[in-house]
Design goal:
This protein has 354 residues and is α/β, with parallel strands linked by helices. It folds into two domains: 114 residues, Rossmann fold; 155 residues, Dihydrodipicolinate Reductase, domain 2 (2-Layer Sandwich). It has nine helices and 15 strands. The chain has a nine-stranded mixed beta sheet with strand order 14-13-12-11-7-10-9-8-15. The longest helix is centred in the last third of the chain and has 19 residues. The radius of gyration is 22 Å and the shape is globular. The protein binds nicotinamide-adenine-dinucleotide. Nicotinamide-adenine-dinucleotide binds next to helix 4.
Length: 354
């Protein structure tokens, strides 16, 4: 018996191979198994990972007693069933975003993981990126003043999904980033969208998040845009940050800019906004693949019993917002309250391998 964490990756389509590559390269782990319904996909990887078993019988594969952890990168509607089987078989489980198709499914997975004392982690990758960590550090240090609002855009042509709309596909990234930076979940949302290519599946959307303190964040998501855009404005009372994930080097720019309204004025003629234009600063960021950090964090949480930064509860909080957004879409953009989490106390996790 070695001391390594033996891992299986389920789902080897577009994203799964990135998990496979990282888990294979990280120390302290052994990539034992690749599972996919498609034999053709597995054949593609056979020569690349000769040490790993290739299995199409996913249900029995996750029950293999020699596997300690399972990472799931299949379409969203399959997450709940696969993750439940993995957790019930005693495996530490990583699920790609979004965690599952409903709040109820996520709550059940969180409960099973807690009852079993297992690590449950969700792949909200951006929370492991140096740029987002830096923005969080700047905001928490009070360097931009009171956080006023945020706006995010995630646009490109494709990749059209068959089982979910653009909100469930792209907005989880921005919702998780916004909740990480604000440190809280929104109390309500509204969401509007359009189905331009396939009936019933929104390919463009505008989602607004409302926070308890009155702050607002907007998220524009699209699979139907001529230009790839991944950016975000984080606006504080004293400074503003622009984050552009497409930029190879200067992903974050901090602008010493603000607008001030006079505190007192008697006549309309006296009212003057004062605009402040100062310097721009682009902080140095360590170059690190966020997914590598994320995979290493999953393994570390398994070894130490630490709660992952993006644990099941955090994944559930994102799905609560997506669920409210879906209800708002159905009601033509009505404002919908986000059901608050019950925050049940989790049992301590088992450390190391199960
Ligand atoms: N973290 C990120 O940045 C990021 C990026 C892209 C996708 N994702 C997520 O990764 C997941 C997969 O997305 P994708 O784009 O790779 O999808 P995909 O359709 O390209 O690949 C899914 C793979 O899963 C296989 N599969 C389907 N049902 C299965 C089942 N029941 N058992 C075993 N294999 C099954 C398919 O054969 C396919 O090879 C989604 O949750 C998606 O949101 C995350």
């Amino acid at each position: 018996m070695d001391d390594l964490i033996h891992i299986a990756v389920v789902g080897c389509g577009y994203w799964g191979p990135n998990l496979v590559r990282n888990f294979n390269a990280l120390p302290g782990t052994r990539l034992r198994m690749l599972c996919d319904r498609s034999k053709e996909r597995l054949d593609h990887f056979r020569a690349m990972y000769p040490q790993a078993e290739m299995r199409t019988d996913v249900d029995t594969a996750v029950e293999d007693p020699s596997i300690h952890a399972v990472a799931i990168a299949t379409p969203v509607h399959t997450h709940y069933k696969l993750a439940k089987a993995s957790l019930l078989a005693g495996k530490h489980t990583f699920i790609e975003k979004p965690m599952a198709s409903s709040v109820k499914e996520c709550e059940e997975l969180v409960q099973i993981a807690s009852d079993q004392g297992l690590t449950l982690m969700v792949g909200h990758t951006f929370l492991y990126s140096p740029a987002i960590r830096k923005i969080k550090e700047i905001v928490d240090a009070g360097n931009i003043g009171k956080l006023l609002y945020m706006s995010a855009r995630r646009l490109n042509l494709g990749l059209f999904q068959k089982d979910i709309n653009v909100v469930w596909d792209l907005a989880p990234h921005d919702i998780s980033i916004i909740q990480f930076i604000t440190g809280e979940a929104p109390v309500a949302v509204n969401c509007q969208g359009g189905c331009n290519v396939r009936r019933g599946i929104e390919d463009v959307s505008n989602l607004t998040l409302y926070f308890a303190g009155g702050e607002v964040a907007t998220i524009h998501s699209s699979w139907l845009d001529p230009k790839k855009v991944r950016d975000m404005a984080i606006v504080g009372a004293r400074k503003m940050i622009h984050y552009d994930d497409i930029e190879p080097n200067q992903k974050i720019k901090i602008y010493d800019q603000r607008v001030e309204a006079p505190p007192h004025y008697d006549t309309f003629a006296e009212f003057q906004y004062s605009y402040h234009y100062g310097d721009m600063h682009a902080p140095h960021l360590v170059q690190e693949e966020p997914l590598k950090v994320e995979c290493a964090h999953f393994l570390d949480c398994i070894r130490t019993g630490k709660t992952p930064l993006t644990d099941g509860r955090q994944g559930l909080d994102v799905v609560r917002v997506l669920d409210a957004a879906s209800r708002s879409l159905k009601q033509g953009g009505a404002r919908i309250d986000v059901v608050p989490s019950s925050r049940r106390r989790a049992r301590p996790r088992k450390s190391r391998k199960s």
